[in-house]
Amino acid sequence: MAGSSTLEALEQQSLPSTSRRRWYLQALRDPSFLIGLVILLALGAVGALAPRIAPYDPPRTSDRVYFLNLLAPVHAPPFWAAPDEVDLQRVSIDNPPPTPYDPRFPLGTDSERRDMLSLLVYGTRYSLAIGLLAVLLIWAMGVALGVLAGWRRGKLENLVLWLADTAESIPSFLACALFAAVVSEWMGRLLADLGLYMEAIPVVALSLACVGWASVARLVRVQVIATSGSEWVEAARALGVPSRRLILRHVLPFVLGPALVVASAQLPTILIIDGLLGAVGIGRRPPSITLGHMIFQEFPSTVAAPIFILMPTAILIAISLAATALANGVQRLLSPERR
Questions:
Q1: Where does the record place the ABC transmembrane type-1 domain (predicted)?
Q2: If you placed Cys at 67, which of 32, 114, 294, 315 could pair as Cys (CB 3.0 to 4.6 Å)?
């Protein structure tokens, strides 16, 4: 009898490590999780190694000449679109010769003679930082306010719903622009006093999060109301389990995954709004250019050189798809039914 009880105790002690090992195995077997994680890690490595990868570095002063060679041509073609031999007989005022390929700029140059490879590397760095930080802030704010509204109910619920209606009624770009313009200076000074020089990344991410949390909070509120009325929560409440433990153990596992999916679905909009903010000069200064900023900056030359818009757009789409795939995989792994 003693031996069997000891064996049962050892089996109970081994359950947590077994469940953790099973979680890792489920993550490795989920193609959506793996694809999203690999793409984001690869893009994150490119951004982290930007000073070593980019051929041209940003300035260390306020000089606006960056990522470029003053002798570089405008819209030099990338290596795969290099023009063939020029037919001099067809050259005229109406048909000028194409810009020759310059091996110093393998991906060409933009309308301001800046090296596209350097721009894409540093643009990926800043877009990834701003986008992922904004998604995490949206997720955290939406979950916190949604749980408060769904669990406390009453006046607090009405206040959260009113704030959500207000956030959704204001145009996203206008709200982000006003918020970033108001808080950018004092937040920049606060971060500088702490020794953090982050090129206004927290300011832009926080301004984007203050607009996008509403949809996450609404979803979490509905799920909290549905979960709080379930049988196991009522039974735990009848046994005297405190509300804090009920929320952490019985409510949050059901809302974290879906909330993350809804927050990550806003990543494309976040990156586009960030590009618009950068285009009008709000929240960030050169050389911290982002992919969205690159897209809007090349809009006037879309017809003449569309490739210089397609390159940052392709990376932006890859970031959005990878983040969505990773969020879907995390939702499946966090699902209480699956565990």
A1: 124-327
A2: 114
